[in-house]
Each structure stands twice: as C-alpha cells, then as structure tokens.
C-alpha cells in the first residue's frame, strides 16, 4: 500500500506562482514513476506532467510547457510541480499519481490514468483573473 498526499494548492492571481508537493509513504520505492493530473470544474481529469524514476526524463503537456516544471527529490520521497505564469484555465484539482514501477524513460502511455496505481486526494488550485 502506498499513500500519496498533495499540498501547496491555493488561490493565486493570474500570472502568479504556486508549488505543489506530493509526499509518498508506505510500501513504496522512491523511484516509482510519478505524475501530476488535474481536473478542472465540470471537466474530465487530464494528464499534466510526469517524471521518470531517477529523474532521467520528464514530459509536460503543451499547454503548460515552459510554465510548469515537475521535479522530484527521491531522498525525501517527494515530487513537486512548480507552476509559474498561472492562467485562469489552470484552475483545477491537482492530483499526484504513482506507478509501481521504476520507469527510466517516459512513454506515451504514461499520460493515461490507467498507468498509475496510486493516487492522492487532490489539492485545489484556483487562479483568478
């Protein structure tokens, strides 16, 4: 069993920044594949970014490329999402996810929810205009 807990969400004005954190605990490897998803109000949950087990590679969807950065600190069993230049359309519940595999390179399939075995409960990010 793996537990993921997100933190760092909040209310920010357009153009501002937030850093989300995800702490992992339980029977887990610090090098599991990690990802961030988000679910805007009234919409489906979507992939945002993923990072491989030992920081070998990352992938960010085009709409956040250059604004968001996923990173990890395996010594602390943490993953982060630094969000800069936030836009109102970034408003969503943000979820941390982990796949129980020490993936060294991200593939296209890693953007799918079905790839992931563990999920946090989410943290709300609201961007005002």
**Secondary-structure content class:** mainly beta
Sheet bearing the most strands, described? 7 strands, mixed
SS element count, helices: 0
Given as residue ranges, the uncertain stretches (5+ residues, pLDDT < 50) are: none
Rg of Cα set: 14 Å
Structure description:
It is a single chain. The chain has strands at 2-7, 10-13, 18-26, 33-39, 46-51, 58-60, 68-73, 78-83, 92-99, 118-119, 123-128. It has 129 residues and is mostly beta strands. A hairpin with a 6-residue loop joins strand 4 (33-39) and strand 5 (46-51). It is globular. The N and C termini lie far apart (40 Å). The model has no long low-confidence stretch (mean pLDDT 94).
Tell me briefly what this model is.
With 129 residues, the protein is mainly β. The protein has strands spanning 2-7, 10-13, 18-26, 33-39, 46-51, 58-60, 68-73, 78-83, 92-99, 118-119, 123-128.
Fill in the keyword field for this structure.
single chain, 129 residues, mainly beta, seven-stranded mixed sheet, 11 strands, globular
